[in-house]
């Protein structure tokens, strides 16, 4: 999995928008290393589109908040809650530097 490199300032936030498939039972789960410098929270900034296709869910939005200078790895994995084994259907890895 390739990493995206991002830098944010302490006290600021980075918005992450991920494609949703909640109507098919898929949700995004977060793994964080470096919780001393960042926190990740779901956000209500998801886009509601009246033109969504059947079986597609609203996009899911997360906020990565910079708490203090340091480095963190944030991995998002899209999977069904009851299917914890095996590969996720989608993933995104961010290398975050808080300055």
From TrEMBL:
A GO molecular-function descriptor: peptidase inhibitor activity
Domain Proteinase inhibitor I42 chagasin: 8-91
Keywords: Protease inhibitor, Thiol protease inhibitor
The keyword NAD is assigned to this record: no
Claim: Nuclease is one of the keywords in the record: no
SUPFAM superfamilies per the UniProt record, alphabetical: ICP-like (SSF141066)
InterPro entries: Chagasin-like_sf (IPR036331), Prot_inh_I42_chagasin (IPR018990)
Protein name: Protease inhibitor I42 family protein
Lineage: Bacteria, Pseudomonadati, Bacteroidota, Chitinophagia, Chitinophagales
């Amino acid at each position: 999995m390739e990493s995206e490199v991002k830098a944010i300032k302490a006290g600021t936030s980075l918005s992450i928008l991920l494609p949703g498939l909640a109507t098919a039972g898929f949700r995004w789960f977060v793994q964080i290393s470096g919780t001393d410098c960042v926190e990740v929270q779901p956000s209500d900034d998801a886009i509601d589109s009246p033109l969504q296709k059947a079986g597609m869910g609203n996009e899911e939005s997360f906020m990565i908040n910079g708490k203090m200078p340091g480095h963190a790895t944030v991995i998002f994995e899209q999977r069904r809650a009851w299917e914890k084994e095996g590969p996720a259907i989608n993933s995104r890895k961010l290398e975050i530097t808080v300055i």
